[in-house]
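Hi support team,

I submitted a single chain yesterday and got back a structure, but I'm not sure I'm reading the token output correctly. Could someone confirm the output below corresponds to the sequence I sent? I've pasted both exactly as they appear in my results page.

Thanks,
R.
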Amino acid sequence: MEDDSSVDNDGDNDSFAPTPPPPLTDRDRHNKHLGRTAYTRYCKKCGIDPSKRVLAMLGTNELVLVHRGIDKLQLEAIAAALKVNEQITCVNFSNNGLRPQNMEKFIQAMTDNEFVAELNLSQNYLSHFGAALVSNMIKNHKGLTVLKLSNCQFEDRDGLILRLGLEENDRIVELDLSKNTLEEDAGVQIGFALGANTSLRVLNLSWNNIRGTGGVALFKGIKRNCGLSTLDISWNGLGYEGAVAISDCLQHNNTLEVLDVTSNRINWHAIEVIAKGLRRNSSLKVLKIGHNPVTTTGALTLLQAVKDGISQLEHLDLAGVQVIKPFEYMANYIGERRRFTYDHDGVVPSHDVVGQKLERAMDPMRKVMNFLQESQIRPLELFRDFDKQQSGALMNMMFVERMRKAGLPLTEYEMNVILQQLLDDGPGAVEYK
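Hi R., thanks for writing in. Yes, this is the structure output for that exact sequence:
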């Protein structure tokens, strides 16, 4: 038997009692009556029993039916109520096994209802035909601001269909398309839509397959967009190409505040590119880039960009990435001067071998010249100090021994390299006169 109880009573402590709802106005009572009447009449017409839960919720501002397996007739009866109800502002039908062939009347009712601001159809079997229904609703609905379509089995080809709706919409501020199978072409189409859209503030594209040209086009659209503040594109496959597009976007976009690119095949080479954009960006507040092959070097590169550029980043999330101690020193240095926090997967004693930046080997003779410059010694004075007998020449072994005792910063191999350079097929001794 269906449990229609919607209120839990855990005790008599008044301090935890919910705030009583405001008294119903005459209009609220009228709308409540209209919705219930339309619903019960349609149920009677179809020969089905009205749900006590639905009847109760038609008197509130939320219609929440989750994990209930709503069939076609029940959905059409609810649609009849929504056509005349002006009180409900939030509809949540997630995980109900809804299919597009059963949803036409419901989607039409949603399109005609200007009072519903939030709609959640996540975890239903909308697929390609459902995308067309939803796109038409997006295009024509006059009040919808939040639309959640996570795990609705949308495919790559559905990107174009959704784009047609988004380009005509100037009201939706939050859109969730996570956990579908949107790929490169969908990324391209959504990128075009973002270039034209002015209302969207929050976009969730996580757990799709957007990569390559799709990722590039997406960030090109965001580069032109003047409203989006939060983008979650985690668990896709942006890679190096996507990193280049991210860098370019960060240098031009001034509205994006939260960017989540967790687990996107972004390695230390791609990090260097993103760091260039980060240095020139002052709008981004939160960057989540963990679970990528960033390496300790990449982590330090990102932090250096935050420290040296105009970045106003407040939180850097490197979940699953290890760092070295200098990272924490630098992060704390930044945190002492402004608001800044960070996450990582622990501190290791030295850099990763992969991605480590090795200094280019310096020419041994340049090392000698730098040493002399720092010590304010002229080369001739050094040779005269080596030549105790003032003969004007030094035997090979004697010259190497003198360099070693003088404290020159050279290895044994580098000393012999210098010796060979000075001999230059000479007589077997270093002459300096």
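A quick pointer for reading it: The chain has a mean pLDDT of 86. Let us know if anything else looks off.

Best,
Support desk
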